[in-house]
Design a protein that fits this description.
Shape: globular
Strand content: under 5%
Number of strands: 0
Order of helices and strands: HHHHHHHHHHHHHHHHHHHHH
Helix content: over 70%
Distance between the termini: 16 Å
Structural class: mainly alpha
Low-confidence stretches: none
Oligomer: single chain
């Protein structure tokens, strides 16, 4: 079950909200609903997740009772190894075995094919952040197993984030959530995210699938660029839309999730791009990998090492394939180039030039990310750079460029920039009353209130599209 589905919008969500607000057992209702949501897609893997929850809950309770630093460090290492071990088994064992078999003739390693539990990369990182924060005494261990399980299993963020740290919602887990003052804000965020996903991401997907489905030697210049543009829009509005729906659902349930995207395609450097893209992941690697390794405090060589480690892990986190490894190192290399002097050139350059540089690098990276193999990625990039392939669009590409797809591309280009907040400010749209929690985590300048007719139109149009199509995947479900 995905958020952008008829079943979720008209059946699951209304039933959950009615039960949540009608019952005095809100934490229990939310936990049961989250378990049902996960079982809908995964079934038996719920027991794996439950075992990890219990192991981390009990392990942290034991760790918090230890007095010696060595014993605490051993407990931390044990829990992190357990969490990463489960992630590694399901996500990377097959990849490692396949590569070792290719390198070592006659290798006895068997082929490993395990179905990947939905959301394993997200809930594993949440568990590790909880264990580490308790070890560093940034938060007190949760004593209530039901509340801790609810934090991990909570269906708005369980499958594809954002990565929510325990400290972000600990107080809200213990608070009285009977008030509905954020319900309207949650509905607004959900509809905006649903519209991003259905009206833009889903609509441009056929063009991206067509271009990346062609053999690289048959790609013409225009189709290659159109496909890269379509995927650039698809992955942002797919994941950004999901994040907005997750934030909206959290508001409906009385929680505040961290902001996950901040118009990344307006960045003027790759460094700025990573401050705006998948913020919960990049901040996780900063706080739990980069800084503990020494950050930039131990000289140039260590800084270079730490950045490469972080972006290697960023690539590997997304998937067990060499394309993801190269994608992560590709971004890490550009961050280093900017650190070694390019950033000063970009600051002095005209804004459109710096913006074009960042956008071209990001698009080239998305080709690596989307391709099924490195040879395909290199062939696709060659097609984008080969002027001899210029010419009229092939018929199979022209057929896809109907009014709906062209409108989705235009909307994607326009709304990938902060066009909507600018328009709302220009027309004097009201803002929500200031809230320290919302201000700190979502928008430091407040949140505009969209007109009700606009929200209704977005919802109705999205539902109409969903009712008439079967194309509705979430890209990040496979990560």
């Amino acid at each position: 079950m995905v958020f952008s589905s008829i079943v979720f919008v008209f059946y699951f969500l209304p039933v959950v909200l009615i039960g949540y607000y009608a019952s005095g057992l809100r934490t229990g209702v939310l936990l049961a609903a989250s378990a049902a949501f996960y079982v809908w897609g995964e079934g038996a893997y719920l027991f794996l997740l439950a075992a990890l929850i219990c192991a981390n809950y009990a392990g942290v309770r034991v760790m918090s009772g230890l007095s010696g630093q060595g014993a605490r460090r051993l407990a931390l290492a044990t829990l992190v190894t357990l969490d990463l071990g489960v992630l590694g088994l399901f996500k990377y064992a097959g990849f490692l075995a396949g590569n070792l078999n290719a390198l070592i003739p006659g290798s006895p390693l068997p082929e490993i094919e395990l179905a990947l539990p939905l959301g394993i990369s997200f809930f594993t990182f949440q568990l590790i952040s909880y264990v580490a924060d308790c070890y560093w005494r940034r938060v007190e261990p949760e004593r209530d197993l039901i509340r801790f399980a609810t934090y991990v299993l909570m269906f708005p963020h369980l499958i594809a984030g954002p990565i929510v740290r325990f400290a972000d919602i600990r107080d809200e887990l213990h608070a009285d959530r009977r008030r509905t003052r954020r319900l309207g804000l949650g509905i607004q965020y959900f509809i905006v995210g649903l519209s991003q996903k259905v009206l833009v991401a889903n609509a441009v997907a056929p063009l991206a699938d067509h271009a990346f489905g062609l053999p690289p030697e048959k790609l013409d210049l225009a189709t290659a660029w159109l496909g890269a543009l379509a995927y650039t829009l698809q992955i942002y509005f797919d994941f950004g839309g999901y994040s907005n729906m997750a934030i909206g659902l959290a508001f409906m349930l009385g929680f505040t999730f961290p902001k996950n995207f901040d118009y990344p395609y307006i960045a003027r450097s790759i460094t700025e791009f990573w401050r705006r893209w998948h913020i919960s992941l990049s901040s996780w690697f900063r706080d739990y990998v980069y800084i503990p390794l020494g950050g930039n405090r131990r000289g140039l060589a260590v800084t270079v090492r730490n950045l490469l480690i972080v972006f290697l892990l960023t690539g590997v986190w997304h998937g067990a394939a060499w394309t993801f490894v190269v994608w992560g190192l590709f971004h890490g290399a550009f961050l280093l180039i900017e650190r070694f002097g390019l950033s000063r050139v970009l600051e002095a350059a005209p804004r459109p030039v710096a913006h074009l540089y960042a956008l071209l690098v990001v698009m080239a990276g998305w080709v690596l990310f989307r391709a099924e193999s490195l040879p395909q990625a290199l062939g696709y990039l060659h097609a984008m750079a080969d002027p001899s392939r210029a010419g009229p669009l092939p018929v199979d590409t022209l057929i896809l460029l109907d009014a709906e797809l062209l409108a989705a591309v235009a909307a994607g280009v326009v709304f990938a920039a902060p066009t909507l907040p600018w328009l709302l400010q220009r027309i004097g749209a009201p803002r929500l009353p200031a809230s320290p929690t919302i201000e700190a985590r979502l928008d430091t300048q407040g949140v505009h209130v969209l007109a009700t007719p606009v929200l209704i139109a977005g919802l109705l149009l999205s539902i109409a599209v969903l009712a008439g199509t079967t194309l509705n995947p979430f890209l990040y479900f496979r990560f």
